[in-house]
Amino acid sequence: MYLGVDIGGxxxxxxxxxxxxxxxxxxxxxxxxxxxTSSFCDDVASAISEAASNAGMTLGQFGYCGVGCPGxxxxxxxxxxYSNNLDFYNLxxxxxxxxxxxxxxxxGNDANAAALGEVLAGAAKGARNAVAVTLxxxxxxxxxxxxxxxxxxxxxxxxxxxxxxxKGGELCTCGRRGCFEAYASANALKRQTAQAMRENPxxxxxxxxxxxxxxSGKTAFEAMRMGDEAATAVVDTYIDYLADGLTxxxxxxxxxxxxxxxxxxxEGEHLTTPLAKLIEQRRxxxxxxxxxxxxCAELLNDAGIIGAAMLGRxx
Length: 315
Prior knowledge:
- By secondary structure, the chain is of the alpha/beta class.
- The protein folds into two domains: 2-115 and 302-314, ATPase, nucleotide binding domain (Nucleotidyltransferase, domain 5); 126-296, ATPase, nucleotide binding domain (Nucleotidyltransferase, domain 5).
- 38% of the residues lie in helices and 21% in strands.
- The chain has helices at residues 37-54, 93-101, 110-121, 181-184, 186-199, 205-209, 219-225, 229-253, 269-282, 302-309, 311-314, and strands at residues 2-7, 11-17, 23-30, 65-69, 72-74, 79-83, 88-91, 105-109, 130-135, 139-145, 148-149, 257-261, 293-296.
- Strands 3-2-1-4-8 form a five-stranded mixed sheet, with helices on both faces. Strands 11-10-9-12-13 form a five-stranded mixed sheet, with helices on both faces. It has a three-stranded antiparallel sheet with strand order 5-6-7, covered by helices on one side.
- α1 packs across α2 (93-101), α3 crosses α10 (302-309) and α8 (229-253) crosses α9.
- The longest helix is centred in the last third of the chain and has 25 residues, at 229-253.
- The chain is globular, with a radius of gyration of 19 Å.
- It starts with a strand and ends with a helix.
């Protein structure tokens, strides 16, 4: 059995993973980094203990705990050097968690963990070269090359969310303007939806969530399927931004499979069909026989848990 933790800006999710990559016990807490790093680590440890208990195990039965966390991760020291969405700077997360759960902690980037999970057991299973993009609070990507996580010289490879999409555009949480993340994350989609609602008071989007402060990543998609023009424009614009960013990834890396995870991926073909069409028009290698397959991730929110649990075997 293996222990994996997926830390996000909204939730802390923990799973006990067996040899077939099935999750047999879970723990979960809300993510409140603003309350301080000590309190945050207490919550992570509490979720870990809950997962072990639900699987009928004790923490002492695990050789290590794998943790996926957003941001710039020093995998050797176990330090979160910078996480803009959690506002962590040089946080010795592995050490702090080890002190709480009394087993070794292996720390990695959350998007890398999700990519590993999809290659081992999900949409990219069997691929030697794959990219998994996660559309959540931010936009992250894990890169698998020749079956291994590509980390770069400092463990920070794959931060596609902070590549430039719109010069001088929306302010990103990293401090730069116009980042891919500022236009293609789930949070960006919510912002775009809320703005469209305010500009279109007769939109069916109001019937779905009743307040521009209660929008979700699926609000515009739901209203689009109801024939709402304003919602359709939101979805079309969002997918257009997403296509530009993903085309850049394909042009640079040429993976066998590019899979999209996060809550937005639950839209399935309503997302991937128009997205694949735009990418096909824009990719530099459109004349090649071999091309990248774009598909939705299969493991959804479990990808990060499974990948984190396997960090000790594949890092």
